[in-house]
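Collaborator request log, item 7. Partner lab (contact: R.S.) asked for a structural prediction of Beta-microseminoprotein to inform their binding assays.
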Amino acid sequence: MLVAMVIEPIESYCFAGRPKVSMTGGKFEVWCDGPHGIMKPGQVTRDNCEECHCTFLHFNCCGIGYKAGAFMIPGCEIQKLDNCCYQFVKSSNSSIPCTEVECPKPFKP
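Returned to partner:
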């Protein structure tokens, strides 16, 4: 069986930066300005199909599941499911799958 695929980013993104450093009472504090507030080094968050990591050296967030980017299968379209999962289904009949359901790996903070 031969399946033709074309790479085409869909809602795909990642962004990165450096953590913030401040001095309070003569002590350095390192933190990241996360999408939902301050994150401490070693903290990982996952929300709205986005996973963010804060370390002493860097801060980054990337889309997961259907926001991680996808490919295109001729004659099929992406169907977004709960928990950031997705499946490609026939464009002419969404009850006919083109692929199995794909989901992000379970979250381990």
